[in-house]
Amino acid sequence: MKYMLILVLVLVAGCDAVRSTTDRVFGGSPGEAEAAPAAAEVTEAPPVPVAAATGWAGAKTTVAGLGDPNTPGRWLQTPLVQTEINGRVVVPRTGAQAYVTLVPAPGPAGGGSRLSLEAMRALLVPFDELVELEVYSD
């Protein structure tokens, strides 16, 4: 009976649903915990420049939901940009930030945005909620 309980605990601990929940609650896996200073201050190295387009000074605010989970990478589809450029997104509520590729999306400048699954994980935000973001261009 003891062995069955241990086996069940090991199998449940390996599930993605359990792992993603514990990552959100405890601030990442043990390997990430050593590299990251704190859960609210998650920073990443900026990606390789995508285009030589100019951005803007200061922050623009948008509300984002989960984009296509099958599209890999860290990106934010937003009507705030006209061409694909690199940028940084910050969650004002927690201070978490991540460097992403800003991808143009159709719609008005005040329209909503879509955030990649990898970017949502980096920002430690729930996948099923809308999140307010401050967007900075590099």
Describe the fold and architecture.
This protein has 138 residues and is α/β, with parallel strands linked by helices. It has 2 domains: 1-35, no CATH class; 38-137, Barwin-like endoglucanases, CATH 2.40.40.10. It is 26% helix and 25% strand. A 6-stranded mixed beta barrel has the order 1-5-2-4-3-6. It is elongated and about 65 Å long. The protein starts with a helix and ends with a strand. The model is unreliable at 30-39 (pLDDT under 50).
Give the secondary structure arrangement, pairings included.
Elements: H1 2-13, H2 16-26, H3 30-35, E1 60-66, E2 75-78, E3 85-90, E4 97-104, E5 113-115, H4 117-123, E6 131-137
Parallel strand pairs: 1-5, 2-4
Antiparallel strand pairs: 1-6, 2-5, 3-4, 3-6
CATH superfamily of the largest domain: RlpA-like domain
CATH architecture of the largest domain: Beta Barrel
Which structural category do the helix and sheet elements fall into?
alpha/beta
Unreliable segments (pLDDT under 50, ≥5 consecutive)? 30-39
Helix content: 25-40%
Quote the distance from N terminus to C terminus: 58 Å
> How do the helices and strands follow one another from N- to C-terminus?
HHHEEEEEHE
Percent of residues in beta strands?
Answer: 25-35%
CATH class of the largest domain: Mainly Beta
Strand order of the largest sheet: 1-5-2-4-3-6
Arithmetic mean pLDDT: 77
Number of helices: 4
Cα-atom radius of gyration: 17 Å
